[in-house]
Specification:
CATH superfamily: Glutaredoxin
Strand order of the largest sheet: 2-1-3-4
Largest sheet: 4 strands, mixed
Subcellular location: Mitochondrion
InterPro entries: Ribosomal_mL53 (IPR019716), Ribosomal_mL53_fung (IPR042776)
Structural class: alpha+beta
CATH topology: Glutaredoxin
Number of domains: 1
CATH architecture: 3-Layer(aba) Sandwich
Order of helices and strands: EHHEEEH
Radius of gyration: 14 Å
Number of helices: 3
Organism: Lachancea nothofagi CBS 11611
Family: Belongs to the mitochondrion-specific ribosomal protein mL53 family.
GO molecular function: structural constituent of ribosome
Strand content: 15-25%
Number of strands: 4
Distance between the termini: 25 Å
Shape: elongated
Amino acid sequence: MITKYFTKVVVRFNPLGKEAKSARLLLCAIPPAQRTSGTSIQNELLVNGSSKSPIVKITFKDKTEMEADPSSMTFKELGNYFDRHSRKLSLKESIESQ
């Protein structure tokens, strides 16, 4: 997963639910150096009777926000979903640098 362009990551999940695996893997995919250098990470654990729904919300450097439901997607699907926009930003960055 291309995490270089993330500025804010919000993850909300139930640690005992089916969404826990993909949400935790997504959090682990963010390198430690990036966590300290400007990417804001917020996570919220939900209890079984919570009225809030699980969500992964990522804000990119160009202020684009994307949301996904970790209970309906695997980690690989989440990665592909967010990588689409990261690839666009990477292409834009490479064009501007030439």
